[in-house]
Amino acid sequence: MAKVGVPLAQKAREISRLLGEPDWLLGVRLSAVSILESRRGAGRVSGLRMEGSVKRSFSSEGGAAVLSVAQAVARGNALKEQLAVRPNGMESDEYLLSLALFTEGTVVAVPAGKPCKVSIEMEGKPPDFFSTFFLLEDGCQASISMKTAFASRYGECRGIFAGRSSRARFCFVQADSAGCSSSLGMCAWLDEESRLALFGANLGGAGRKEGACLFQQKQGSRCEHYESSLAKGRQRIEKRLWHCHSAARTFSRAFLAYAAAGCSQVLFEGNVRIGQEAGGADAHLLAKSLLLSEKSSARLVPQLAVHNQDVAAGHGSAVAPICKEELFYLQSRGLGEKESRLALLEGFLSEPLRKGGVEASQMPWVASELKRQARRIFEGEGDGA
Q1: Where are the domains of the chain?
Q2: 166 CA to centre of own chain
């Protein structure tokens, strides 16, 4: 039987040639292919949609620049300095595949100096694979929001490169249409004394598969990861998270909340790894799931791998339906059953934001989408409880 499609490496070369990329960027693509195939064998690809019809809107303050990958390459060596020394072999499959095959890309470059604010919104039909890279200069301060509302399947590689002593807060909202399946590979590299706070919400689509790797390879870095997701209908959310500490005095917190309605499924695997050289590290991972129907399901697996005695580390998970006692309490205060269930769901989904010390007004996209999607569940529009 003839093999379908072309080898991944050949397709990566074709894409790079069509886009007129420099040799170093082709090398990055081929490195991603090599690592990916060392894990799961030779791969082939066919029917790749290389162009999309995406409506983009950007706004920026404080000197931040939003560029295409081609513009970033022509502008200087900042992107090369970050990408050319990577991948390092620890990235997720989702990140590597999209890195090898992306045909469109966005680069957000944040300079040092006064605080920067960036807002990105994308909707429409994207290419099969695209990339988003964030370059945070040493000492910069940034608040970055990104919302996707796509109507067709896609894969994204998202890279965050946090420079020394940088301070950045990200807000990511995925609100794709009901028939859209997607994959996301996200990687963040934190330099010395950098601080990174990631807030995310998965509130749409037919299925979502994520692989996220957060690398704290320089001392004194701090990384916080908070996420709220709502699965409904027959949606399946699958996420694997690696939080890697390999330097002294690193700090991390991760808190993820998943609500599951209808016949949806949630699968989460979280890994915190503290290396022998990471003395004084402080890490904690917590994942929770709220089951809104008898047919919904969730499997949460947090794990720790600690190779240094001088650390503080913990993890936990919880899966449960709506608490009857809490429901009864709210109803006894005059709320109807639907309003009570809605209040409990909204409280559950907003808990990661509160844990991260964020007011709803600071991240209006997340707050408004959480409320809108939660209301749909109990108004009979979202294959809910």
Answers
A1: 6-322
A2: 20
